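Re: the request from the purification team.
They wanted to know what the chain is likely to look like in 3D before they choose a buffer screen. I agreed to run a prediction and write the result into the notebook, where they can find it.
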Amino acid sequence: MTVRPAPGTRPGPPPSLWALKLRALRRTVQRGPRWGYGLVGLLAALLLTGEVYGTWRALTFLGRFGDIGLNVFARVLEIGLITLSSGVTFSATTAAISTLYLSDDLNFLLTQPIATVRVFALKVSETFLNAALVPLFLSVPLLMTVAVYFGAPLWAYGVMLLAAVLVFAAPVGLGALLAVGLMRVAPVGRVREVSTALGVLISAGLVYAIRALRPEVLVQRLQDPAQVETVLRNFAGPGSPLLPPSWAAQGVWQAAQGRLAPALLPLVLLTAGLLVAATLLAARAYQEGWARALDSSTPRLDPRPRRAGWAERSLVRLGRGGSLASKDLRVTLRDPTQWSQLLVVAALAGVYLVSVRAVPIPVPQFRGILGYIQLAFQGFIVAGVAVRLAFPAVSTEGRAYWLLRTAPIAPRQIVLSKFLGVLPVTLTLGLGMGLAGALSLNLGPTLLLLSGLVSVSNAFVITALGVGLGAAAPRFDADNPAEIGVSPGGLAFMGLSLAYSVLCLLLLARPAAGSVLRPDLYPGYSALVTVEGVLGLICLALVTGLGTWLSLQAGWRRLDGLE
């Protein structure tokens, strides 16, 4: 029997994918914690205020040198866009695999009466949001400040915003194309490994390029007053005319001065070509990849039993929570998209430590102050690792989380197991960076000890904070793990982690300053046995214990109330 529509009825408009996504986003915001959104808004306001103020002061200072100083700012802007776009290329290459082909809602969307091209156009847009939203958010206030400083016309603001979007959309299109190519040529079941290797190579190339610039040489030359003008003039010269971020920098700089740059036209064409090609090829390659997966042979499994390693046996002795931690650690090591982030962050941390050591600081007091302040940056690096491992630890259970709840396992054991599984990674990274940084700068015994203590405190509290916040607001229905870290809770976690790192430095600032500025009065560890030193150590121990315990307790209590 054929069913016909009633007379006079017209078919409705095709469903809007963006309307569905916006509705889902609105409902997620309505169900989300209000305190998290308020904290994210406060941190964003502080960040924007600091960025605008710093940009204005830099333009005012460099403007005193005339066109040479302003051209130096233009070159710094160009280098910044090149660095950020390179990082977006790496993130897009790894995130596009999960977004384009492994999203949970992909099969549902493809079964709807929606063109396949529209579905993958939406997925490419989601890749842009996952990989480039944070760099875009950081770049726009800076560009708007430049426009206000030069008194740009109203149309220039739209042009500068368009250039900011294009400079990050182009690497997203390139990363999506690389992901599509990997899906086509990589061996079945090895796409993530190949994409991870490619991303690590891109990051290694970026790290090598940064070190090849040798910024410490520039600092040495700037110490000579006779060479300041020569250095600024050379640095303000033309940049790299063949790189798309250079085209965007030219468009932004000329638009701020009321001129429309011709370099924006090839940038628009290149970005549009990359995005359209990625969308069309992704739609076509999905069907071919699906057919290849069906025709591929079943992988051979090793039937030989394998005994548990010493780490797994040690964790199992801790009970059910230790067994869960062992399982999480094994799953993390098997997923290249997780452990590859550790390699990249460790490489960047190594470059930072080498660069800090290479900067000439002849005065020991300045070297000690720099070595102490850098602990805050190292805490931020630990938070960058934790937002990938600790914060989504509970959410990555997905639908399998209810298997844990039906088992005789309490929420407290689940949260503690996640904490124990991530802590070895963050503790090793934090303590290694703290001690290596102190030794590379040849700091005194007091600062060396304080570096180790602050690093341990950061590792414990930041890891507990990530697991606790992730358990308090889990996202079991996330389409892919890349979305969890960029949620409001993830941004709040990063802000709180940085605030805690600064708090640790403030607690021990007096004994650290005494050992650096007055080494004759406080030799050895004598600065730590003063009243300020003892109180600082006691406060550090208290905030470490309370911060770790309260963060985990808040997480498992909220998780216990989840239905």
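For the purification team: The CA atoms of residues 41 and 474 lie 20 Å apart.
Please add any questions underneath this entry.
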